[in-house]
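Hi V.,

Quick status before I head out on leave. The structure for the redesign project is tokenized and pasted below; the design run finished overnight.
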């Protein structure tokens, strides 16, 4: 937990994978590195276990976090009561630990009633998995089911739906000028960007279970004595259906046609992230299996969804059923208050281990995408 592995941190990601690879090899896995599909991102790790049964199970967890270099030293892993804290502790390093512990449990039990169990540890989920998108689809097409290690929502939920994610960029181009000598020659993109932002105020919900669009980044200028000629704002869009995203982008592009600062131009760029996880009969069937297994230890999990996208949706998009939220229960994600509930460790480990065993013996039905 005390290794900085923010998305894009090649050294940190490599350190985490170097820590886990020998443990997986010792359990009998065939471990390999997969080069990132985008530059300046760490390799991914794939560990394959081979058995003698039928089910082909894919487990996906991500080792990247939203925190930068030095955060682990400032806020190292700690336990307070029955909560553990630290950068990435629940999202999603606890999920990584849960997956590795479940595989160790199966190894120690000598369980082989499966065809393959593949663990993918990926390194760019927090940016929409740009370094692993093709790899996830390739692996998913070779398996019968995907179990995702994102944290469970309090109090004890499994994730059966997720919104898709996308980044929408407003890029403004204008003309630079000296602020003292010739400000009249400028075409101030900062002012035009403010207009663009004001024109979108109230256009989309900021919270709720439906579509949400939130401003996250603004950039304009680098020096106080230069009126800038380039500015940008980035919005995070979360949506349930592809049609929803199309409507969002159409509204942004429509508003971009109207400018207030003369001789400025506005471009809208879409940076698509992870697709939505759709609750369907396949997801419901997996959730029903999970409920039956949890009942063996007297637990009753809830079913929920949220706006945090994950790789489970990518697996689902190629035709295999996926169940999400199988990590330990946590909260306050993407903040310095992030936590994981230690009361959930043993029940969640039991649930994942038994789910893998159950899917190995009786694999879920695949469907074409």
């Amino acid at each position: 937990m005390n290794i900085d592995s923010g998305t894009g941190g090649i050294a940190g990601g490599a350190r985490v994978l170097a820590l886990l690879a020998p443990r997986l090899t010792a359990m009998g896995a065939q471990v390999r590195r997969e080069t990132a599909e985008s530059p300046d991102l760490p390799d991914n790790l794939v560990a394959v276990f081979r058995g003698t049964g039928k089910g082909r199970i894919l487990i996906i967890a991500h080792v990247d976090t939203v925190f930068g270099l030095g955060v682990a030293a400032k806020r190292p892993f700690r336990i307070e009561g029955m909560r553990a804290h630290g950068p990435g502790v629940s999202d999603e390093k606890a999920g990584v630990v849960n997956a590795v512990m479940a595989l160790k449990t199966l190894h120690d039990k000598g369980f082989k009633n499966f065809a393959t169990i593949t663990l993918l540890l990926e390194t760019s989920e927090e940016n929409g998995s740009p370094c692993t998108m093709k790899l996830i689809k390739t692996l998913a097409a070779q398996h019968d089911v995907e179990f995702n290690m994102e944290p469970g929502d309090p109090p004890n939920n499994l994730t059966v739906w997720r919104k898709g994610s996308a980044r929408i960029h407003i890029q403004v181009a204008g003309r630079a000028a000296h602020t003292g000598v010739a400000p009249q020659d400028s075409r101030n993109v900062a002012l035009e960007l403010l207009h663009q932002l004001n024109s979108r105020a109230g256009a989309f919900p900021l919270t709720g279970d439906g579509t949400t669009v939130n401003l996250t980044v603004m950039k304009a200028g680098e020096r106080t004595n230069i009126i800038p000629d380039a500015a940008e704002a980035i919005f995070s869009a979360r949506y349930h259906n592809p049609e929803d995203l199309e409507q969002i982008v159409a509204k942004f592009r429509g508003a971009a046609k109207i400018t207030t600062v003369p001789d400025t131009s506005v471009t809208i760029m879409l940076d698509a992230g992870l697709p939505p996880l759709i609750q369907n009969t396949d997801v419901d069937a997996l959730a029903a299996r999970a409920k039956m297994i949890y009942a063996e230890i007297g637990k009753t999990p809830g079913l929920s969804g949220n706006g945090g996208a994950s790789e489970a949706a990518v697996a689902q998009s190629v035709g295999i059923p996926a169940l999400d939220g199988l990590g330990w229960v946590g909260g306050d994600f993407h903040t310095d208050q992030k936590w994981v509930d230690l009361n959930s460790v043993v029940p969640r480990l039991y649930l994942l281990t038994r789910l893998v065993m159950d899917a190995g013996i009786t694999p879920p039905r695949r469907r074409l995408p």
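Above is the designed sequence. The first strand starts at residue 30 and ends at 34.

G. will cover questions while I'm gone.

Best,
W.
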